[in-house]
Design brief:
DNA-binding, 6-stranded parallel β-sheet, repressor (chains A, B), Rossmann fold, transcription (chains A, B), homodimer, DNA binding (chains A, B), 6-stranded mixed β-sheet, HTH_LacI (chains A, B)
Chain lengths: 347, 347
DNA sequence: CTGAAAGCGCTTACAG
DNA sequence: CTGAAAGCGCTTACAG
C-alpha cells in the first residue's frame, strides 16, 4: 500500500504539499501540483480514510440501527437512508437489533466505538430509555426514525393519528359499527399511536366502545392469532377488521381465508403499511401507505443538518429538537367496501 | 472523550497495561486489572476503534455493494449479510450502485479508502470488468454475490440452470408448447443464465425453437412491455409465460390483466424470485423462490473465511476461488396449471 | 509481571 | 508559496 510519504518523495515535495493538493486546502503552484498528481497516478495512491478520520476526529460516516430488517417498510427506510447518505458523501454503517434491546445496546456501543459522526435509530420494541440518553450524553448527534417518543430528540416518522381517524370514518361511512382492531405490541410507538387514534375515533364518532375488539399489548403472534380467531368466531361477528402492520395483516388474512370469509362482503378489511405490488392481487386491500423511503431520506438529511451545525460550531445555543411526521397516503380499495376511490389525502 | 492515557493515569498504571487488560492480550495481576477496570468504569471509557484500526491495519469491517437496493431479493440478501457479519463481530458498510457502473466504481473506491477488510459485491448490470481486477489487485478479499461471472473469484449465488429446466418441463407436462420467456437485461448474469437454460430446455425437449418468444437483451422496461404485448396480441397466442424477476413479473401481470386473460386457463404463468406473502393472494403464482437471505449469509461467511486465512497468513499458496450456488425451491401453484403440488426439489 | 517508546498515515498550525 | 514537526489514540515489540 502506498502512503503519502511515498508519493511525496516520488514527486520531490513535502507530504504537507501532497496533503494539500489532495484536499484542495491551500494553494499549490500548478507545476508542483502536476508533479504530485503524476506521482499519485504512478503509485496508484489511495488516501487512507482511517488515518484521516483519526487525525480529524471525524469519520464522515453515520450509523443506522433498524429494529427489524425483515420488514419491507424498514428495508425501504434503509434504502432511503443509504440514498441520502451517499449523496452527502458519507458512508453508512448498518446494524439490526432484531427487536432485541440487548442487541440494540450492543449495536449502539459498536457504532460509537467506531466513532460514527451521527446515529439514526429505529428503536427496538422494549428499547431501554437510557440508550437515547447515553448517545446524547456522548454528544453524538442522534435522529430517531419511525419509532418515535416523547423525549427531546430529533425524530422523523409518520403521522398516525389523523390517517387512522380518517380510515375509521371511511369504514363507518360504509355502515360499519363493530371493529376488530389488531394493534399488536403497543410498546412500539407507531402501533400505540394507531391504537390510541382508534380509541379516539370511537369517541369522536359516538360509537359503543364496548362493542369493539382491540387486540393490543400482546407480545406473541400466536396469542394475537388466538384472540382474533375468537373475535371472529364468537358472538356477533365484527364487520370490519383493521391490521396495524404488514405482518399483522398477513396473519389476519390467513385467518380470514381459513374461515372462508369474503372481503368486503363478510368482513371489510384495511391495513397499515401493506404489501409491495399490492395492486396486482385480489382482493385489493385498502392500505394506509407509509412513505418509508422518504422517511429514511428525511432522517438522514436531518442528521446531516445537525452534523453541519456541529462542525460549524457557530451557535452557542443547542438547536431545539425537531419532530417531523410525513403523511401516509390512504389507498382506498375494494377490501374496505364497494366504492373504490383513490385519493391521496393531505393531513 | 476519555482516552487510554487518562484511564492509565487514573489507575496509576501504564497505557500498555490498560491496553492489555482491554484486549486480554497478556497476563495482568488481578489487583492491577481491577484498578484498571475501575478507572474505565469511572471515566466511562470507550475504546477508539478508529485508532485501533489504524494501528493494526485492520478495521474489522466489511463493505457490501448491492446493485439494486429496491428489489426485495436484494433487501433480503443485505439482511443476511448483516446478520452473519454481526455474529462474526464485524461491522457492515453498505452502499448501493443503483445498477450504475459509475456509482459502483465510486462505491468500491470509497470502501477501499475506508480500508474495509473485505468486500461483497453484487455487480451492476453494465459493471466494468476491471473493478474486480482492481479490488483483487489491491489484495482485498472479495466475494461476488448473486451476479456471478466466469472469472477466478469467490462467489455465492443461486443455481439457475436446473430449476429453469425443471420449471419448463413442468409446463410442458401440462401441455404447453408455445412460451413467452421474459428475461430482460441479459447483461445481468442471473437473467442470462435463466435465458440460456430455457434455450437448452427447448432443445432437450425437442420443442420448436422458432415458436418461442424470448424477450431478452432489452435495456428499457417499456420496450419489454411493448414486445410482450405484441407477443400476446399477435398470431397464435403463447400458452405459457415465464418472467425472470419480480419486476418483470409485476409488469407482465399488469399486461395480462389489462387483456383480461385468466391464469392459468388463458395463459399459464410462472415467475422467478416472486413476491412476499404470495400465498395470501389470488392468483397463486408458481414461483422459483431464491433463498436470498441464505445467499447473503453464505457470502459473508465465505468472506470471513478468507479474512481468517489471510490473517493467519499460514498458507503460502493462494486458496483456489470457490463458487457456491444455493438451490431455489420451486413453489408450484395454480397459476401454472390445475395441479397444485408443492415440492421443494433438490438440485 | 509491567513500562517507555516507536510508529500506524494522516492534518494542520507554525515558520520561513 | 512550501516544508518540518507535532500529534490524533491506539498496539506491540523491546527491556527490565
Amino acid at each position: 500500500m502506498t502512503t503519502m510519504a511515498m508519493v511525496a518523495s516520488l514527486a520531490g515535495v513535502s507530504i504537507s504539499t501532497v496533503s494539500h493538493v489532495l484536499n484542495g486546502t491551500r494553494h499549490v503552484e500548478p507545476e508542483t501540483r502536476e508533479k504530485v498528481l503524476k506521482a499519485i497516478e504512478a503509485t496508484s495512491y489511495r488516501q487512507d480514510a482511517v488515518a484521516r478520520a483519526m487525525r480529524r476526529s471525524q469519520t464522515d460516516s453515520v450509523g443506522l440501527i433498524v429494529s427489524d430488517a425483515g420488514e419491507p417498510a424498514f428495508a425501504e427506510m434503509v434504502h432511503g437512508v443509504e440514498h441520502a447518505v451517499a449523496r452527502l458523501g458519507l458512508t453508512l454503517l448498518l446494524a439490526n437489533s432484531a427487536e432485541d434491546p440487548d442487541r440494540e445496546a450492543q449495536a449502539v456501543e459498536a457504532l460509537l466505538e467506531r466513532r460514527v459522526d451521527g446515529l439514526i435509530l429505529a428503536r427496538a420494541a422494549g428499547s431501554r430509555q437510557d440508550v437515547v440518553d447515553g448517545i446524547q450524553g456522548e454528544g453524538t448527534p442522534l435522529v430517531l426514525m419511525d419509532r418515535l417518543c416523547g423525549m427531546r430528540v430529533d425524530q422523523v416518522g409518520v403521522e398516525n393519528r389523523l390517517p387512522t381517524i380518517e380510515l375509521v370514518k371511511h369504514l363507518v361511512d360504509q355502515g360499519h359499527q363493530r371493529f376488530v382492531f389488531v394493534a399488536g405490541d403497543c410498546r412500539v410507538p407507531t402501533l400505540r399511536e394507531r391504537r390510541d387514534a382508534f380509541v379516539e375515533a370511537m369517541a369522536q364518532l359516538n360509537l359503543d366502545a364496548s362493542a369493539q375488539t382491540i387486540i393490543a399489548d400482546v407480545p406473541a403472534f400466536d396469542v394475537i392469532d388466538g384472540q382474533l380467531e375468537q373475535a371472529l368466531d364468537a358472538g356477533p361477528r365484527p364487520t370490519a377488521l383493521i391490521a396495524c402492520s404488514t405482518v399483522l395483516a398477513a396473519r389476519a388474512l390467513k385467518i380470514v381465508q381459513n374461515r372462508n370469509l369474503q372481503l368486503p362482503t363478510d368482513i371489510a378489511f384495511a391495513t397499515f403499511d401493506g404489501f409491495a405490488y399490492s395492486d396486482l392481487f385480489t382482493p385489493q386491500l385498502t392500505t394506509v401507505r407509509q412513505p418509508a423511503f422518504e422517511v429514511g431520506v428525511a432522517a438522514a438529511e436531518l442528521l446531516a443538518h445537525r452534523l453541519a451545525d456541529k462542525a460549524r460550531g457557530s451557535s452557542p445555543v443547542r438547536l431545539a429538537p425537531t419532530t417531523t411526521r410525513l403523511s401516509p397516503t390512504i389507498e382506498y380499495r375494494s377490501s374496505s367496501g364497494t366504492t373504490v376511490r383513490m385519493t391521496p389525502s393531505n393531513f
